[in-house]
Write a structure and sequence with these properties.
flat; mainly alpha; 6 helices; single chain; about 120 residues; Serine Threonine Protein Phosphatase 5, Tetratricopeptide repeat
């Protein structure tokens, strides 16, 4: 299935990452790393690729780069959540009244505080 997705779009980071997961589960951490790296060349902020790369690096005993990829995964996830929240607030501001905007803003602050 992942190979079929890659035939349609060879730069599709989620398919590259999931194919890497297959290799990792089968014990081929080196091939998994190669696929995760390729995914990150196309989408450097893809948190799943960073997270899974950290898992492969751990299996290979490469602790220092593993820690960096965990940090990169966390940072990418936070940025994605913030962007999603911004879009939701913007959409509410264009369609809703001030009460709706206030409720969304409070929710955004709660999420931002939680992920610090």
């Amino acid at each position: 299935m992942f190979r079929q997705s890659l035939e349609l779009d060879p730069k599709f980071a989620p398919a590259l990452t999931n194919l890497g997961n297959v290799f990792l589960e089968r014990g081929n951490a080196e091939e998994a790393l190669r696929l995760y790296e390729e995914a990150l060349t196309y989408d450097p902020n893809y948190s799943s690729a960073h997270h899974n790369m950290a898992a492969a690096l751990k299996k290979l005993g490469r602790i220092r780069p593993m820690v960096q990829h965990l940090k990169d995964a966390q940072k990418a996830f936070r940025e994605k959540e913030r962007e999603t929240a911004r879009k939701e607030v913007s959409g509410c501001m264009s369609r809703g009244g001030p009460t709706t905007v206030l409720l969304i803003a409070v929710g955004v602050l709660q999420v931002a505080t939680f992920w610090r």
